[in-house]
Amino acid sequence: MMVTAEGDSAIVGVAEHGNSAELVTVRRRGALLDRRRVDLTDPGTPTHPYHHQGAWAVGRYLDSPWAKPISLPDAIALIERVEKAAGAGAVRILDAVQADVPVPVSHIAIRACPELPDGIEARIRDNRAQTMADSVMYRMALAHAAKARGWTVCWYDRDTVFAAAAAASGIDDIAPVLKTMGRAAGAPWQARHKLAAAAALAV
After folding, report:
1. Peptide bond into 188 cis (omega under 30)
2. In the beta sheet, which residues pair with residue 24?
3. Residues 6+ apart with CB under 8 A from 108
4. Which of 58, 68, 106, 196 qualifies as a FRET site for 176, CA 20 to 30 Å off?
């Protein structure tokens, strides 16, 4: 059984891109514990079923060379399968993170989701929603998996999270902290890694 200092815990910051994400885990005191890139679904699974197959099903983008005709019921069924796969992937990924860090994870920071219509068909038919629904699906998969583990889900704003991280750390600028963290992590340490780290530090 792992014995940790009272109140010692870890926070996972997430910077997602499609079905993949950069996860940066920090100790509550700010030390880097883990950095990994993950895919929520397996190769061969459509990564943007709302924006591609869903859009094609209602007649959008059919003049694109990669478009393939699909019925609306088939598109909805496909999205349901991808959503299920993303949920299973999120559980597997968060299990692996917790197994690999030396203290219990207490929080996860995920980019806030825009409000979308309820239901798959409604999201497909709404031109604005179908451009965002895939990303929201993956973020929600991670959120549900985290909640099932008892982690607190914190939603962050990408435009303000760096300032929030600085404020939470009691400093004016979080950039030097992220630079030091990047040296510890090693290459690559790119904008998405910094975003995920800032999100964790802001909690």
Report:
1. yes
2. 13, 35
3. 11, 12, 13, 14, 94, 142, 143, 146, 151, 152, 153, 154
4. 106
Amino acid, single-letter form, for residue 111: R
pLDDT tens-digit series, residues 123-141: 999 999 999 999 999 999 9
d(CA 13, CA 108): 6
Whether the pTM exceeds 0.85: the reply is: yes
Query: How does DSSP classify residue 51?
Result: I
Report the DSSP beta bridge partners of residue 25.
12, 34
Residue with tokens 């760096």: 162
pLDDT bucket at 3, cuts 50 / 70 / 90:
very low
- Which ranges in the chain belong to alpha helices (H)? 55-57, 72-100, 120-125, 127-148, 161-169, 175-185, 191-202
Contact between residue 149 and residue 94 where contact means Cβ atoms under 8 Å apart: yes
Q: Which domains does the chain have, with CATH numbers?
A: 10-44+86-115+132-202 (3.30.420.10)
pLDDT digits (tens, 9 = 90+) for 7-37: 689 999 999 999 999 999 999 878 999 999 9
